[in-house]
Design goal:
It contains eleven helices and no strands. The mean pLDDT is about 80.
Length: about 260
């Protein structure tokens, strides 16, 4: 605990709270879950014995030091791997799927296009449902109309379409492609607008990193099923956070693009 507090005082919050600390928790859970397995998933006493074996005085000072070093290396590796995994999540969320996923992306886009309806059409269906006495269905349709996309889907994901609309508006007002000129956009903005845009992007990156951790826990569930449950809960939460972060990032980019430099 003292080591963690010392690291917290020396490492920036982004690295400690978003990468180093979650990595430390994951490595510990992976060790315990790997030792317990599926058949003894709730053997808490056995887990304590395993930890005591590696850290106890009876194991010897050199053995304990080696175990701590290996744990630290695993934690550091996980912390450095998170941004890489989050970048992959960001690419998929933004709809820029790699070439080898193009067939899957085309099918997903086709399904989204078939299900797409304009907000006006959805509101008309809500009015008809309310007139027929179906108040619950009408309320659900009203909520759907409030978040419906105004244009036909152009990418496999909702996030990709939202970011595409924001990029088009930035190009219209700034004559700049934000997907390749992010740094140029930041340098062209006043301090307040730059800070708002950087904070919005940081929230988006944090959501992608959390979603990457949820995938890691789900994979760990192959060896210890409670980890899969954690992955599902974390995944649902981070997915909602990602949608909110994407909308905030896009809205912020649209707002700052309309402001004069």
């Amino acid at each position: 605990m003292g080591l963690l507090l010392e690291l917290e005082s020396r490492i920036p919050d982004r690295w400690f709270l978003r990468r180093l600390l979650p990595s430390a928790v994951f490595v510990a859970v992976a060790f315990v879950g790997g030792r317990l397995g599926q058949s003894r998933w709730n053997a808490g006493g056995m887990a304590k014995q395993q930890v005591a074996r590696y850290l106890g005085a009876s194991a010897g000072a050199s053995y304990t030091a080696a175990a701590v070093v290996l744990y630290a290396v695993a934690v550091a590796a996980g912390a450095f791997a998170v941004p890489v995994a989050a970048r992959a999540v960001s690419t998929l969320a933004a709809g820029a799927w790699p070439w080898w996923l193009t067939p899957v992306g085309d099918q997903v886009l086709k399904l989204r296009a078939e299900r797409w309806r304009t907000p006006e059409k959805i509101r008309e269906s809500a009015l008809l449902a309310r007139a027929g006495g179906h108040t619950v269905r009408a309320a659900r349709l009203d909520a759907r109309a409030a978040t419906a996309e105004p244009d036909r889907p152009q990418t496999p994901t909702w996030s990709g379409d939202r970011l595409r609309r924001a990029a088009d508006e930035v190009r219209e007002h700034r004559r700049l492609d934000v997907r390749t000129g992010w740094v140029d956009l930041l340098l062209d903005l006043p301090e307040a607008s730059r800070t708002a845009l950087v904070d919005a992007r940081d929230g988006y990156d944090g959501a992608c990193e959390t979603l990457a951790w949820s995938i890691a826990y789900a994979v760990l569930g192959i060896w210890w099923w409670p980890a899969a449950l954690v992955g599902v809960v974390l995944g649902l939460t981070s997915w909602r956070w990602l949608r909110h972060a994407v909308d905030l990032l896009a809205a912020t980019a649209e707002a700052v693009s309309r402001r004069k430099a």
